[in-house]
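Subject: two folds for Thursday's group meeting

Dear M.,

Sorry for the delay on this. The cluster queue was jammed most of the week, so I only got both jobs back this morning. I'm pasting them in the order they finished. Each block is the input sequence followed by the predicted structure tokens. Could you check whether the formatting survives your parser before we put anything on slides? The first protein is the one we discussed after the seminar.
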Amino acid sequence: MNEVDQSQESPSWQYGSNPQAIRIENEGTQVPAFLNKTYEIVDNPANNHIIAWSDSGVTFIVYDTGAFCSHILPAHFKHNNLASFVRQLNIYGFQKVGNKHLWEFRHDKFRRDERQQLSFIKRKTPTRRWMGENQNDTQRSEAILTELIQLKQRQELLEMNLVQVMNTNDTLWNDLISCKQQQREIQDNLQKVLYFLMSVHQADDQKQSQLTGVLDMTHNSQSMSNLSSGPLNDGMSHLHLSSRIVGSV
């Protein structure tokens, strides 16, 4: 009875002499460093945008594999290989569950707020068949991870190109608006000049006829400007009208 009482009074777990493991005093067992580190990573709220418990708390999910490989793994396991991490999970009996595109894992003894259950997770005894299957799974996982990284790089490149196209389109649109405004100003000035000349040559019927014809051309040019192929054609038509006005004077 005394031994039981002492066990209950002592902490449920503490670091033992082995820095690579946690000793569960009341069970007399050690939790492997991999399981302890993985639990700490998942249970850390600062990592929730990268890796976290599911809503039920019976599984955990790697939401951002890129950040997980570049930041989490090197900080805790001294490597950045997702396939190696998954292989270790498989060794301890974890299973990948849920959507095939989601990195979600489950173990009956690996749950939120139940850290004491880690001592019951046992490492699988390797067999030749299991080792062969595990090697194949590792190769497939590494191929999938490589493809995911390549797809992410292509997505980032496409996003950069899209931003450049949008910026170019904005510049061209602003230039078009500016050209249209200049076109309207030129047309207004031409009409003012024509009305002035018509007032000057009121007694000359021939000049009046010529100027009236040119004025009609400016109106037609203005109505057709919306159908023109571009500001260059509009500018050429205005130069032509200007030469007609000079010739009519």
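Second protein, same layout:
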Amino acid sequence: MGFETCGPNEAIVVSGCCHSKPLMVPGGRVFVWPGLQKLQRISLNTVTLTIDTPNVYTQLGVSISVTGIAQVKVNGSNMDMLLTACEQFLGKPDSEIRSIARETLEGHQRAMMGNMTVEEIYKDRKKFSASVFDVASSDLVNMGLIVVSYTLKDIRDDEGYLKALGMARTAQVQRDARIGEAEARRDAGIKEAIAEEQRMQARYSNDIEIAQSKRDFELKKAAYDMEVQTKKAEADLAYSLQVRYQAIFRYTPLPTQCIGKILGLLLSL
């Protein structure tokens, strides 16, 4: 034999002379004495298993079938688990390892189905998968195996229960959609009415401001016109008095003080 090597996806197990317990070398090399030591190999590859559990009664007595997909492998990074796996599976074909792991996972999958309702499994697949993963991992670790992943692939039944459950859910979603649409139209109508009210209030407020400005302008204009007319009348009257006075007193101008007094007297009448 001499030096023996293996890839990262397997481990070499050497037993016999000079070893009180097997020497395990995952992904490396080792010297083996011919005739004095025995060399064996164990695979560290990940194995994909399809876990079918047909016609299992759930917590409320509804029969369903479940298919899960699991990946398992021998744990080569932990020497204690690798030793346990060697004690369990060394020298056995991969098909036997697959069979043992599949039966273990199927038992835990079946047990978990019996502890949950159809609705819980159907609506929360993540919870179901996590539960199967946890209980199966704690069991397989005692064999030196680890569960890399577990996923619930399919749920089905022969009585149409899941179909009815889906139809009920579909009807509920459609109902919620109709209610949501009606509420949206209602809210849109309310917002539109509020916007229209605000628009009319703004328009009325603007019209009032325009009317007030127009009124103030008319009042100021009227006062200005009155003042202009008054001044014009005073000027015309003063001119008339001046003309009459000059006609009587041979073109002698009427004193300004007298004109003011006379205008004041006439305007007070």
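Two things I noticed about the second structure. The mean pLDDT is 83. The helical segments are 79-89, 94-114, 118-123, 125-140, 161-248, 256-268.

Cheers,
T.
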